[in-house]
């Protein structure tokens, strides 16, 4: 029998072996020089843990809540597009795995399975990620469908007025993805012109005029709570709170948008301080270990989202693989909590980590 993967790295290796290069590169690649892509992960390695000893850790409770919804642990599924590239069941398999692990999945606007299919696949709390298109009615229609099918929040992605330059997709001439949610709603001109079809598609659909006033527009079409995903700067976090959003995701879109934007973990504390508890602050980007999750929580995140690891699991073993990836991260977090002397999420504090600057002092 083939050895079971023991960490996310090994799942990544399997995904690389089983996926066509074009799809693996689409999942794994970043923008430009991929500097931020590497930094998202490297920045976690520069943070050390400060364990406390002689604490009774015979029982560890990782549970937490977000917007009042309970989760087994603060590790959520980030919105990523086109799961059918990885597995024929696509987002339905991912949704079932997330539900089995008692965690929250954010379904991508660019999913390859319909909102309705994902909703009826299993009972679970889910959020819906939104892109705003030039044709506002397309976005409004999807928001209405998500609301009707029981999604509990809208996660508005705010770092994508235009698509980042993903050179691997351009080189590979990435084929037009199947975006089932948009069937009959969008028709664009992407032909065999060379380059990435996704880039051509995005340039004809995404609305680069999206701005702060549009939060009011979104509020006028939905009663669901709104979370902004893609904030990096404290100023924007403050503005988001003023606008009355229900949460913030510190994210650089997995380094797929603006290269040389900072690693998300390096700006988390700044954003958390600016928000000063007004709304939950989440983070994503580069999380590959339970220790990474612990570090993010210590620096003030309410929960984390993982993107690529879910896709590696899905490509390797479908629903079972996604479940295994989530369980792996959960048990790594549980062990880290035990070894750091923390028995619940609330006990994880700033004092449990040491950042690079602090070492120099
Ligand atoms: C993404 N991401 C993303 N974000 C979003 O708001 N809508 C989307 O449709 C997508 N699609 C997408 C596809 C793929 C293949 C990836 C890798 C990422 C970004 C995603 O939500 C998240 O911010 C990052 O994936 C987090 O970084 P890690 O965990 O992949 O390092």
Automatic annotation (TrEMBL):
Its cofactor is FMN. Its main location: other. InterPro entries: Aldolase_TIM, Alpha-hydoxy_acid_DH_FMN, FMN-dep_DH, FMN_HAD, FMN_hydac_DH_AS. The keyword Oxidoreductase applies. Residues 1-358 form the FMN hydroxy acid dehydrogenase domain. Glyoxylate binds at residues 26, 131, 166, 253, 256. Keywords: Flavoprotein, FMN, Oxidoreductase, Peroxisome. Pfam families: FMN_dh. Gene3D superfamilies: Aldolase class I. Its EC number is 1.1.3.15. GO terms for molecular function: (S)-2-hydroxy-acid oxidase activity; FMN binding. It is an enzyme of class 1 (oxidoreductase). FMN binds at residues 79-81, 108, 129, 157, 229, 251, 284-288, 307-308. One of its GO terms (biological process) is defense response to bacterium. PROSITE patterns: FMN_HYDROXY_ACID_DH_1, FMN_HYDROXY_ACID_DH_2. The active site is at residue 253. It is found in: Peroxisome. GO terms for cellular component: peroxisome. Belongs to the FMN-dependent alpha-hydroxy acid dehydrogenase family. PANTHER family: PEROXISOMAL (S)-2-HYDROXYACID OXIDASE GLO3, S -2-HYDROXY-ACID OXIDASE-RELATED. This is (S)-2-hydroxy-acid oxidase.
């Amino acid at each position: 029998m083939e050895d079971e993967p023991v960490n996310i790295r090994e799942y990544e290796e399997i995904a690389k072996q089983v996926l066509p290069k074009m799809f693996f590169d689409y999942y794994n690649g970043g923008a430009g020089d991929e500097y931020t892509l590497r930094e998202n992960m490297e920045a976690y390695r520069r943070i050390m843990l400060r364990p406390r000893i002689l604490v009774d850790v015979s029982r560890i409770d990782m549970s937490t809540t977000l917007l009042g919804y309970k989760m087994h642990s603060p590790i959520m599924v980030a919105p990523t597009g086109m799961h059918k590239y990885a597995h024929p069941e696509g987002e339905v398999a991912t949704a079932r795995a997330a539900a089995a692990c008692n965690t929250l999945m954010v379904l991508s606007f660019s999913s390859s399975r319909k909102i309705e299919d994902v909703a009826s696949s299993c009972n679970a709390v889910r959020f819906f990620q939104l892109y705003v298109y030039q044709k506002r009615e397309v976005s409004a229609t999807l928001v209405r469908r998500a609301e009707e099918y029981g999604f509990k929040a809208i996660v508005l992605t705010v770092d994508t007025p235009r698509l980042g330059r993903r050179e691997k997709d351009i080189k590979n001439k990435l084929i037009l993805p199947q975006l089932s949610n948009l069937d009959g709603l969008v028709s664009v001109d992407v032909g065999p012109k060379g380059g990435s079809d996704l880039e051509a598609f995005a340039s004809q659909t995404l609305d680069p005029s999206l701005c702060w006033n549009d939060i009011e527009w979104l509020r006028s079409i939905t009663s669901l709570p709104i979370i902004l995903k893609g904030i990096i700067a404290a100023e924007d976090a403050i503005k988001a709170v003023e606008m009355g959003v229900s949460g913030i995701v510190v994210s650089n879109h997995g380094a797929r948008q603006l290269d040389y934007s900072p690693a998300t973990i390096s700006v988390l504390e700044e954003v958390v301080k600016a928000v000063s508890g007004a709304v939950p602050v989440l983070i994503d980007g580069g999380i590959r270990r339970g220790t990474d999750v612990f570090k993010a929580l210590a620096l003030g995140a309410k929960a984390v989202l993982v993107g690529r690891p879910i896709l590696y699991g899905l490509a390797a073993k479908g629903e079972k693989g996604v479940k295994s990836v989530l369980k792996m991260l959960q048990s790594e977090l549980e062990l880290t909590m035990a070894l750091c002397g923390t028995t619940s999420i609330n006990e994880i504090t700033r004092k449990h980590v040491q950042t690079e600057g602090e070492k120099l002092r």
